[in-house]
Amino acid sequence: MGGWAIAVHGGAGVDPNLPTERQEEAKRLLTHCLNLGISALRSNLSAIDVVELVVRELETDPLFNSGRGSALTEKGTVEMEASIMDGPKRRCGAVSGITTVKNPISLARLVMEKSPHSYLAFAGAEEFARNQGVELVDNDYFITEDNVGMLKLAKEANSILFDYRIPIVGLETCSAGAAATESLLQMNGLPISVYTPETVGCVVVDKEGRCAAATSTGGLMNKMTGRIGDSPLIGAGTYACDLCGVSCTGEGEAIIRGTLAREVGAVMEYKGLGLQEAVDYVVRERLDEGKAGLIAVSNNGEVACGFNTNGMFRGIASENGFMEVAIWE
């Protein structure tokens, strides 16, 4: 065993004009979450306990797009989704269409441990949450003043936004007519703006070599109600097995098509690649024209990340003392 390792992310595809204070705020939160996970690992918590703990913290803070502070649907509501996976027996749980559960990642774990299923969504997931006695809040709890303003701008731009905290000047550029529309990224043939989705995730390998992964998001700003992205899909946004744990972020539709998280484990198993080699291969070969990033750990204590965007909010640490929090290449 190579000791424990942990990685956390807050989205891939960062606006190059992101204000310095926003960058520092993100780094502080990522550092806090890493330290929380490190402390838990030193206290011998299992990998699955640590990924849930860290993602709950990210869901509670409104900075990134999960839990409180989630992106808004076209109707101005919040529909969240999350998944969690325990590597040793490949147990998993996922939820979508969550509107009242304070911490969707914990509901996903309850689906894994307290239901006969792997995935519950919308009214069924909400009913399961009530039956399990999890903490519930009004949908307004998740909505922030900034998000309401960004939804208004997104509607004026007639666009789905990856980063719902785009500076107004950038959004005005996106809505400046047909010429601007032609320059936008296409998602399933439709234009969207190119900024970070700010999904959150955590991957951990504990000192016993057990891997786990968790991912949580509010999705895209101004998304259609009922849209489900990659984050709750096992093998796409989240995957863990005996070899590794992976959490993805970015253009959900591209991640789904490429079954990105599972591909990391697959090329390790079938091509014999090391963790970083596998991450690099998958980002290079499995995204087609999509934009995304991922974090990963292996059962021997390796930790890695990769992305084909200009940046990704990320932090990594390992038992040997290495720790890094970064945004850009």
UniProtKB/TrEMBL annotation:
Q: Where is this site: Cleavage?
A: 198-199
Keyword Ribosomal protein among record annotations: no
E.C. no: 3.4.19.5
Instruction: Recite the UniProt keywords alphabetically.
Output: Autocatalytic cleavage, Hydrolase, Protease
Checking Gene3D superfamilies in the record gives: (Glycosyl)asparaginase
Q: Does the keyword Lipid metabolism apply?
A: no
Which reaction is recorded as catalysed by this protein? Answer: Cleavage of a beta-linked Asp residue from the N-terminus of a polypeptide
User: Which processes are annotated in GO (biological process)?
Assistant: proteolysis
Q: How does it assemble?
A: Heterotetramer of two alpha and two beta chains arranged as a dimer of alpha/beta heterodimers.
> Which protein are we looking at?
beta-aspartyl-peptidase
